Amino acid sequence: MTMEVKANRSVVPASYDDQYRLLQYGDYTFTYTANGELISKCQGSVCQYFDYDVFGNLRHVILDNGMEIEYVVDGRNRRIGKKINGTLVQGFIYDDQLPIVAELDGSNQVVSRFIYADHTKVPEVLEKGGRTYRILHDHLGSPRFVIDTQTVEIAQELHYDAWGNITYDSNPGFQPFGFAGGLYDNRTKLVRFGARDYDSQVGRWMSKDPLLFGGAGPNLFCYSLAEPVNLVDSNGFACGSPCPNYPPGCGELPQKGDGQCPKCDPGKIRASLQEALQMYSWYARGGSSASEAAAAGGSMQTVAGVKCKPRVAPELPPGWHVYVSSWPPSTFNCSGDPCVDFCVCVHEWFHVIDRRPHDLFHWSQSYIERFYELPAYATEIECLNQYL
């Protein structure tokens, strides 16, 4: 398998446009909306068609056999149901934005319950039909075996290739999770990860990164920097390492000294941080405001009563400065949870920015990594001390 420098997959002859949209892959052709969502995937005259809502959620699929699949989405853009040819066949109950805690049938009766332990995205235990099953998954969170805890018999066994295609499934549909712990549809073969759907056949997202260049890299369709064996993207925004057994990647939060993951959700933290950095890029381009912020050097300013009080180390590495910016809490949709908001709710927020002479405002992966090259500053934020 070979990769282009911009992380386009090229295992078979493929062509892309200037926006990195896949136009042809072998004998498949693809078309898109002006916004970048995939709307057709054709192999000769045999096509599948896709439709989306105004928020970019995949809502309707017409398969090549004529079957129509409709996804039901709630007000928080969570997939809560599936209809086949107009009939509701499946539903989901969530504890929060993630994870799924129960699966429903077409009559809204609970058929499966899920219990989470070490992993926040992938359940460890399944309760179904009066029996309890243990879900064994790999380092990415992909279910490999579902085992009856009483009989120790294998209820489901799954194999995947490097890009997440299921190459063997002993009991299709027994539970709804697939590659890297995403929500798998065994009819469309797509995997839902939070904000987007992933097509493992071509190893790409069905739509652009909602964070645009606030994510990782210039290719907005690329899944996990084209490293699906080492990295995961559980929310459709930004990839990260499946710690604790793998090193940080794609701007992953620094791990604790004992090698364990932070207790909070790294994906939500990254999304909030990247949103903040995107907005700061716009602020910093303002000239005088940026100059005034730079002139503040390492001075400490806080607003009385705020939840998080950042502290700046007494010395900065050569070429580094501390910028201060003020934003109302509503700018970042603060929820009051420091894990989600990553101290973004504070009125005065300190940014450690690399100001060595090169352009940093293109929001590449390297920019996020430079921020995390200073773990001392991240751990100095009081509201995260309990998590890092």
From TrEMBL:
It comes from the Bacteria. Keywords: Disulfide bond, EGF-like domain, Repeat. Residues 10-209 form the Teneurin-like YD-shell domain. InterPro entries: Rhs_assc_core, TEN-like_YD-shell, Teneurin. Coiled coil: none annotated. The keyword Disulfide bond applies. The keyword Nucleotide-binding does not apply. This is RHS repeat-associated core domain-containing protein. It comes from Thermoanaerobaculum aquaticum.
